[in-house]
């Protein structure tokens, strides 16, 4: 009886060490980022229209210079 219990515990311990397969999951989108999300402001920049790639790139450049450049913030 004791041998069966030890074997069962050993099998359970080894089963707990097994690694499950990891696969990518979640939302997958084939849409380009400049197409937007159909959300209203405040989630989009004022004046930007979904699908306008040139304006989208300009908004990114502006946000990078004004919001993420610490040299601009120094008085």
Task: Give structural notes.
With 75 residues, the protein is mainly α. It has helices at residues 2-16, 53-67, 70-73. The protein is elongated, with a radius of gyration of 27 Å. Residues 1-18 form the signal peptide. Residues 25-51 are annotated as: Disordered. Keywords: Signal.
Helix content class:
40-55%
Tally of strands: 0
Total of helices: 3
Low-confidence stretches: none
Strand content: under 5%
Give the termini separation: 80 Å
Q: Quick check: average pLDDT?
A: 78
Structural class: mainly alpha
Tell me the overall shape.
elongated
Radius of gyration: 27 Å
> What composes the largest sheet?
none
Along the chain, the helix and strand elements come as: HHH
């Amino acid at each position: 009886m004791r041998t069966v219990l030890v074997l069962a515990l050993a099998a359970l311990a080894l089963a707990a060490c097994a690694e499950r397969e990891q696969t990518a999951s979640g939302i997958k989108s084939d849409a380009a980022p400049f197409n937007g999300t159909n959300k209203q402001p405040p989630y989009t920049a004022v004046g930007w229209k979904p699908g306008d790639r040139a304006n989208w790139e300009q908004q990114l450049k502006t946000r990078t210079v004004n919001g993420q450049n610490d040299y601009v913030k120094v008085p």
